[in-house]
Amino acid sequence: MNIKKELYNQCFEFIENRYQAVQNTIKEIQVSLRSETKSSAGDKHETGRAMLQLEREKAGVQLAEIEKTKALLSKVNIENNLNKIGVGSVVFTTKSNYFIAISAGELKAKGDNFFAISANTPMGQLLIGKAVGDVISFRAQAFKVTKVL
Asked: In this structure, what is the dihedral angle of CA atoms 44, 45, 48, 49, given to the nearest 10 degrees?
């Protein structure tokens, strides 16, 4: 399997795991809400319900964010092999290696470490449009792009 495909699959797995975790949280909250309805301990009951409603809203917001990230990932084209860095590029530098797709943290592929980053992160914005040999300065450190896939 090529390195781009491997990194893409790891990003997909990352987002899928987050999606499942939030779905499970929502199910647990709904079960708790149903059991809260059965008891009627006055003010304590109302406070418990309100807290669960807030948790459910928060989980709903997380779910919407995850779905947005899933949609972004689905648009990443890993078939392109451009000379310039763009979304879907694997970038090797003298400092770190990057996969420009979604923010998914540190990944490992073919014995190397990569940071999966979104194009709209500060580092992503610096890398987009650059090519092999270009020097980038980030947080008072300079590094060179050595390879782009």
From this structure: -150
